[in-house]
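Appendix C: a fully annotated inverse folding record. The material below is reproduced so that readers can follow the format used throughout the book. The structure is listed first as tokens, followed by the designed sequence.
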């Protein structure tokens, strides 16, 4: 979540609308002659999301959200909340003052936080530690599935131009083949706190539109809601990476075409940075949702950066106007969430589907198998390899979003069996 600090204020000689390089802690500031602390001394750590207030000597002011970097030091990724001009200030570079300051949306977040219990030393809802603990304890605030890139059922490294390549529940639409791979963070690193993996995406060179897309099932819950998208990213060279949200009203819905929000840009460098962008999802008045459930969705789009290699980690989309700490859930739970859209059997002996029985020649018998979780829609099944069959033939087919069936026909009187036998793999697909 956004970090608050007491009496944190620094001077700057930055000009323009980009990152603000911080100089030194402010000395005695009229009229009360009170000195300030630099951000690090005030306890703000590298990569922390901060709410800031900028005062320029020409009378301009700006408040918003950004990320603090100890390199410089500076605040990066300025995201405007309000300003005297209605846009990011083009700073004069003359006696610019930069403060850590709570914004209205930060305080509004506290309305839903209960007071600390009586035995807490600080019973104020504004106690930073208590609020952080309360928010961190709220499960399922991140609407992105596999935002920490833990699950790669297809392959941990793959190349291609479209659809699902490697990483689970991330969709690629590429004009020229790109390579996507799972990479490990260095053990003990602090640039992306607590992260184990990140995704590396090596774009080909093309002038045609291409993108990376994450599809969030169920659009209705976002009606006219403010949301915050946050992620860590870096590139092999400085570049700009765009992102936006798209509303889709489902099969038979209206409008049927793309309903895109405004695009925002992340200025990537060769070092990890955390970016956060605020979006407001459009109001659904006058729109028509489709007749097929589970087809309406909200998508996060990231644009192509021709010829660049981009690393991305810990993608999160949540309600509200600030980015909280990335929500980490057990990898097994992430895997189950991915299973709603896609899963692959492991293909080893005595795993799914394994069946044993005894039957007369020509006898048919079958069993209905349940998926580990309900699929988004009735899935398609595909197979590779050859199962180990004993005295039978087998037909496996889908029934609905919850189950599939195995129908076995015995060849002769006696025991019958089907086993994957280390090669037979079944793919169950209900992706968008």
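Designed amino acids, in order:
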């Amino acid at each position: 979540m956004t970090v608050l600090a007491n009496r944190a204020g620094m001077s700057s000689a930055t000009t323009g609308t980009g990152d603000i390089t911080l100089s030194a802690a402010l000395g005695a500031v009229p009229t009360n002659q009170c000195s300030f602390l630099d951000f690090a001394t005030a306890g703000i750590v590298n990569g922390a999301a901060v709410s800031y207030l900028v005062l320029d000597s020409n009378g301009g002011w700006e408040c918003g959200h950004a990320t603090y970097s100890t390199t410089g030091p500076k605040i990066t990724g300025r995201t405007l909340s309000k300003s005297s001009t209605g846009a990011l200030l083009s700073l004069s570079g003359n006696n610019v003052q930069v403060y850590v300051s709570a914004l209205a949306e930060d305080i509004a977040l506290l309305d839903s936080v209960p007071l600390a219990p009586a035995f807490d030393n600080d019973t104020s809802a504004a106690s930073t530690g208590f609020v952080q603990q309360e928010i961190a304890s709220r499960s399922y605030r991140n609407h992105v599935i596999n935002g920490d890139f833990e699950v790669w059922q297809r392959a941990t490294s793959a190349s291609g131009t479209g659809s699902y390549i490697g990483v689970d529940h991330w969709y690629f639409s590429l004009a020229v083949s790109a390579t996507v791979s799972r990479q490990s963070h260095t053990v003990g690193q602090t640039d992306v706190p607590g992260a184990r993996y990140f995704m590396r995406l090596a774009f080909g060179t093309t002038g045609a539109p291409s993108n990376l897309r994450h599809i969030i099932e169920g659009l209705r819950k976002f009606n006219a809601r403010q949301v915050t998208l946050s992620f860590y990213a870096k590139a092999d060279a400085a570049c700009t990476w765009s992102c936006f949200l798209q509303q889709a009203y489902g099969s038979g819905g209206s409008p049927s075409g793309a309903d895109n929000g405004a695009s925002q840009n992340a200025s990537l460098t060769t070092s990890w940075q955390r970016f956060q962008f605020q979006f407001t999802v459009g109001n659904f008045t006058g729109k028509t949702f489709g007749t097929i459930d589970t087809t309406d969705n909200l998508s996060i789009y990231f644009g192509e950066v021709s010829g660049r290699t981009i690393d991305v980690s810990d993608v999160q989309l949540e309600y509200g106007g600030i980015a909280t700490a990335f929500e980490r859930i057990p990898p097994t739970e992430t895997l189950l969430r991915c299973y709603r859209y896609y899963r692959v059997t492991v293909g080893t002996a005595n795993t799914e589907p394994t069946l044993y029985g005894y039957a007369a020649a020509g006898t048919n018998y079958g069993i209905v198998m349940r998926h580990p979780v309900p699929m988004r829609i009735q899935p398609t099944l595909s197979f590779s390899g050859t199962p180990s069959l004993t005295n039978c033939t087998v037909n496996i087919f889908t029934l609905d979003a919850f189950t599939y069936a195995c129908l076995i026909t015995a060849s002769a009187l006696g025991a019958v069996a089907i086993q994957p036998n280390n090669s037979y793999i079944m793919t169950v697909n209900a992706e968008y």
